[in-house]
Amino acid sequence: MTPTVRLKFLSIYMREARKEAGVDMKDAAKLLGRDTTRVTKMEKGREGLTPGDAKMLLDHYDVHSDEQKAAIVELARTRSQRGRWSGHRAAVPLQQRAYYDFEWDANRIQHYGAEMVPGLLQTEAYMRAMLARAIRVESDEVDDVITTRLERQEVLFRQRPATANFVLSESCLRRMVGGNAVMHEQLKHLATIARRPNVQLQVLPFDAPGNASTFGFTMLRIPAPTASAQPLEMVYVENLHDADYLDGIAEVSDYAALWSRLTANASGLDKSRRLILEIAQTYE
């Protein structure tokens, strides 16, 4: 489990324990000797907590389970391990690193692509064409970024791969990136990877019934660090300058409903693969 995910689970468990105990955030801040802003950041997974402070708060919250306490304190102890983003990975923009960590620890990935082929399915040539137009990637960093992105795709091929479901708007298949040769290779790659047992790939054609989403998003399910706890369900959405990680029950439910509509309106697996291959021929 990556440090980012440890920190996220730590924040969730501490927030839930405080609420179940009926402790006000101001009281928690007073116990820690901090202001409420720092506690808010901690409970949102943006700031850590020492093992000693975690144990002190859990005692104050009257958490009686020794197993639960030990698991949370262990998360506090290991949430700040370093080294993952050194070497070639240092070229990955800071705003993308947290998502890569969440994705790596996920056992289920559901992605809707509105305009571009998602990163997990991109060929190296497609990546290079995309990065050639990127506004925040220096030319001498391109090789390092690509190496990291290709490593990221191992989540689909490792010994216990994530289950990955994709719905791609037909725009993803027709939006020209890098020229005909790049697009032909990319679509042939999509048709190949769609045959993997852990991958489901549907295309939402232009003439599909219902309304398509105008923005892409990713839903992740990440196993909990203990068997007795619930997995983390979250939604990732991004724009040009920022990204949101949504884990509220109402937010996740809304996106799950949107996902259900998209999969219902998209073509089936076999028909989608045939459409991908048909469009691939137009780039020959």
Automatic annotation (TrEMBL):
Residues 14-68 form the HTH cro/C1-type domain. It comes from the Bacteria. SUPFAM superfamilies: lambda repressor-like DNA-binding domains. It holds the Pfam family DUF5753. SMART domains: HTH_XRE (SM00530). InterPro entries: Cro/C1-type_HTH, DUF5753, Lambda_DNA-bd_dom_sf. This is Helix-turn-helix transcriptional regulator. It comes from Amycolatopsis samaneae. The lineage of its organism: Bacteria, Bacillati, Actinomycetota, Actinomycetes, Pseudonocardiales.
